[in-house]
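Changelog-linked ticket: 1,3-dihydroxyacetonephosphate example.
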Amino acid sequence: GDTAATLIAEINDLRRQRNAIILAHNYEYGEIQEIADYVGDSLGMAQAAARTNADVIVVCGVYFMAETAAILNPQRTVLIPDANAGCSLADSITVEQLRAWKAANPGAVVVSYVNTSAAVKAESDYCCTSGNAERVINAIPADKTILFLPDMFLGSYLRQKTGRPLKIWAGECHVHAAIRPDMIEQKRAAMPDAEFLIHPECGCVSSAMDYLASGAIDRRGTHILSTEGMIAHVNRSSASRFVVATEIGVLHRMCKANPNKQFVPIDDSISCRYMKLITLEKVRNSLRDLREPVTVPPEIAARARVAIERMLAL
Ligand code: 13P
Ligand code: SF4
């Protein structure tokens, strides 16, 4: 087969020829992050997609991220190197289920996490990511009922953070739901000097919030953050060791920018098989053959765009 160096050279040639930009999520393999023009969280990827002038956008991430890029760029070609890169969280609510939930709660404001299909976004008032969810909820008038979907752990975190009585859909990400309180407790006992970075989609997020509210002396070393929030935090923290409770791909940028700090994944098994479907070979094929194009029907895109743009405006 082709060596990594050959593939990278081909990708660079094709990127120029196609006037393409490559966006990668923080959970991608390090070698994918290395060839990307932009690496970040879901919010950063949407912002990068919104401001590009490239003709072709290659989304190294999961399908809803490519749909978001397509919604924001109806005139550009949006490609995903493997169309099977789905998301168990986005799959936890269908548009039919959302319509029924709205019908049971007339007048409610619907806030959808970005990990949703374009059709679900089209039925939503606001989109949000883990990086701006609090800001989005605080911007909604206090007398409104809010339906938050689809992640129940992020939802319960937001309910506690904002004090708003959110109605929460019972969805979860199988990768983050597997991060349980006992995993954190074990690492805390083994590494009492470390700072703990916890993604709000984690199954341990409520116990982490209880810990933050407790009198524990080292509670200041526990932080609940989005992936981009984690990276910004480790770059400025004076701690020398961090336990990272999210998908392992996020360690790549942390280690690269902080060679003298130690980063410990909460568990080596915390890996998203969908994110890891994207390989150098598939990125090369994607640029070479313009595969797989991702499009969103115009009437769904128009309504979903309103929810995404409301988020980007905040
Ligand atoms: P963020 O990168 O927005 O923190 O999202 C995490 C995630 O699971 C994306 O799929
Ligand atoms: Fe979806 Fe979870 Fe994978 Fe993120 S880590 S893409 S939420 S399945």
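Closing comment: Example verified and attached. The pocket of 1,3-dihydroxyacetonephosphate (ligand 1) is lined by residues 26, 41-43, 115, 129-131, 173, 201, 226-227 (CB under 6 Å). Residues 47 and 53 are 13 Å apart (CA to CA).
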